[in-house]
From TrEMBL:
Residues 21-435 form the AMP-dependent synthetase/ligase domain. GO terms for cellular component: membrane. Keywords: Fatty acid metabolism, Ligase, Lipid metabolism. GO terms for molecular function: long-chain fatty acid-CoA ligase activity. It comes from Thermus oshimai JL-2. This is AMP-forming long-chain acyl-CoA synthetase. Pfam families: AMP-binding (PF00501), AMP-binding_C_3 (PF23562). The keyword Manganese does not apply.
Length: 642
């Protein structure tokens, strides 16, 4: 199905799937791993499931404009349901599978979803817990029947029952779905995608078919993908980044979307698939880099020596490749040897051997992590966008990659910087606004321009530099503007630091909350015979505090004097989305953390040597344990209260 990009924009997403089923129905569209076996699904089978599910929705009284919410892991049934609802001119709603019942109740009530696809017993039980709060939900469809035998309730239907109802409905009304599908316009809203909600409750961006298709087409004008390419879908499909890849990019580019057996096996399954393209937020790349560090640290001393020497060669070679400059002959030969000895086997172990390009977005990736992946031969590119502009508006081009920018606009995207320094964007990917939020829509979408809320600037050659959220940009006591996120990313490059929250607005110096990485710090403690029981116990060890102090001192050496972190403490618990300290996409909710841990923030600036904190540990069974702990406050350098 090779058509000009302008022609693809004339279709809706289900219409694109229909075209692929008609023209290349025997080609593999999806794969799902089940019981260790990769099962292939062709475009013809994909479209057939979408049609049957759509007929099943019509049999349940689902009408054009109705909302179907999906609460599931990455499974083909998510796509069948999403495109099935869109095929009958309904609207799909993505809900994060990790959401707690109150969060689910909010999204279902806010969007007015009348039918919910819940993957399994766990998700169904969440819906039962909030059933009285969601009276508009007429039916719940479950996909995994394990554990559901004892549920006898007309409210519930299995996915297979819906498909059977679909077959019966198609027999009676054979053209009902395709009539609606073919009459749909690309201008119609097809999906509601929740924003990150860093400053409050998430809003639902109204995505149109045209928005999704434009983004898929425009990105592939920069980085073409082949129909024979593979992609592994393992990030939440409620996130705009996964919608961008598994729906918009897959239907416009035609590559195969692969679903892992489980979230926990995703990295292992990635090695089996060996994808050609990969998209992940910074936390995934940071985790991979951290795991590599752990493996190297466990290797013999000679191996570590070789690794460090070859990595230096990789860093030098990366500077040439990123800028598209030819390497000197000696460096080219040295890198070839390094690649054969270390980098190529390492990429093979990670599943990156066939990886032609990889993307990171959703938050800033630290420049040191960025340079590391280029050093080992991963063509990692920073992207910039938002839910409101379908995830990508800027991307690096091959041979023009800089770790301090997010690249140039993708085709069809206009950009300008307001007098206040805010990044404004305009393109066919800008969504229709926020569902049921007219005031927020009017504030964010003005005269066709998306007001991103981010501060940034354009370089002379058109690269965009993103500083931080406008609301997060801070000033030192002397009036110097700085981005706390920039300092946080520098800190998080340390393999021992998992999360960082920097303070310093109108303060005499910068200070930080830090989370130690339980994997790398735990391994460090074990290697030294340092016994511990819990994360709380590990994070309060004096030896761990000394380790992290050295890491902060190392980071400080590369920072301007005014941006050096002068005081820090180690939080006794990991920041968690379930505690609303992080968004579901892993972004820090800075304001909430400052309020929640107010006494600790005060301790950073009052000269206290330790502070007492009472915190909650929330377990998977819903129980909550309150723990009181005394946290040391560490000081670096001079010029701070004693």
């Amino acid at each position: 199905m090779i058509r000009p990009s302008y022609e693809l924009k004339r279709y809706t997403l289900p219409q694109l799937l229909r075209l692929r089923a008609l023209e290349e129905g025997d080609r593999v569209a999806l794969r799902e791993k089940d019981l260790g076996i990769w099962n292939e699904i062709t475009y013809a089978e994909y479209y057939e499931k979408v049609l049957l599910f759509a007929h099943g929705l019509l049999s349940l009284g689902f009408n054009p404009g109705d909302r179907l919410a999906i609460l599931a892991d990455n499974i083909p049934e998510w796509l069948y349901a999403e495109l099935g609802a869109q095929a009958v001119r309904g609207i799909s709603v993505g809900v994060y599978q990790s959401s707690l019942p109150p969060e689910i109740a909010y999204m279902l009530t806010y969007t007015g979803a009348s039918i919910v696809l819940a993957e399994d017993q766990e998700q169904v039980d969440k819906l039962y817990e909030i059933r009285n709060e969601i009276p508009q939900v007429r039916h719940v469809i479950y996909e995994d029947e394990k554990g559901m035998g004892g549920y006898r309730d007309p409210w519930l239907l299995s996915f297979q029952e819906v498909l059977e109802r679909g077959r019966e409905h198609r027999t009676k009304h054979p053209e009902a779905v395709e009539k609606l599908l073919l009459s749909a316009s690309p201008e119609e809203v097809c999906h509601l995608s929740s924003t990150s909600g860093t400053t409050g409750r998430p809003k639902a961006a109204m995505l149109r078919h045209r928005n999704m298709v434009h983004m898929g087409v425009a990105l592939q004008e920069v980085d073409p993908l082949a129909p024979t390419d593979d992609y592994l879908s393992f990030l939440p499909l409620a996130w705009i980044g996964e919608q961008m890849m598994s729906v918009a990019m897959a239907l416009t580019g035609g590559f195969a979307v692969n679903f892992p057996e489980a979230v926990e096996t995703a990295m292992h399954d990635l090695k089996e698939i060996g994808p050609h393209v990969m998209f992940s937020p910074p936390r995934v790349w940071e985790s991979i880099q951290s795991n590599i560090f752990v493996r190297i640290s466990e290797s013999p001393r000679f191996n570590r020596f070789v690794y460090e020497r070859l990595l230096r060669i990789g860093y030098r070679a990366a500077e040439y490749r990123m800028r598209g400059r030819p390497m000197p002959l000696a460096l080219r030969l040295a890198y070839w040897l390094s690649d054969q000895l270390l980098f190529k086997p390492l990429r093979d172990q990670l599943g990156f051997l066939r990886l032609r390009r990889a993307y990171t977005g959703g938050a800033a990736l630290g420049p040191d992590t960025f340079r590391f992946f280029h050093a080992i031969g991963v063509n990692l590119k920073q992207i910039y966008g938002q839910t409101e502009i379908i995830g990508i508006a800027f991307v690096h081009r091959d041979g023009d990659i800089r770790y301090d920018t997010v690249g140039k606009p993708i085709p069809g995207t206009e950009v300008r910087i307001s007098e206040e320094g805010e990044i404004l964007c305009r393109s066919d990917a800008v969504c229709a606004g926020y569902w049921e939020r007219p005031e927020a829509t009017a504030e964010t979408f003005r005269e066709g321009w998306l007001h991103t809320g981010d501060a940034g600037y354009l370089t002379e050659d058109g690269h965009l530099v993103v500083i931080d959220r406008l609301s997060d940009v801070m000033r030192t006591q002397s009036g110097e503007i700085f981005s706390p996120q920039f300092v946080e990313n520098k800190l998080k490059f340390s393999p021992y630091i998992k999360e960082a929250v920097v303070f310093g607005d109108r303060k005499p110096y910068l200070a930080a909350f830090l989370n130690v990485d339980p994997q790398t710090v735990g391994k460090w403690a074990e290697d030294r015979g340092l016994a511990y029981t819990t994360y709380l116990d590990l994070s309060t060890k004096p030896e761990v505090a000394e380790l992290i102090q050295k890491e902060v001192e190392r980071v400080n050496r590369d920072l301007p004097e005014t941006l050096k972190v002068r005081r820090f403490l180690l939080l006794p618990k990991l920041l968690d989305a379930d505690d609303e300290e992080l968004t579901r996409t892993g972004k820090v909710r800075r304001g909430l953390i400052a309020r929640k841990y107010g006494p600790l923030v005060e301790a950073l600036y009052s000269g206290q040597e330790e502070a007492e904190v009472e915190t909650e540990f929330r377990y998977q069974d819903g129980t909550v344990q309150r723990v009181r702990a005394r946290v040391p406050v560490l000081t670096l350098g001079e010029g701070v209260p004693a």
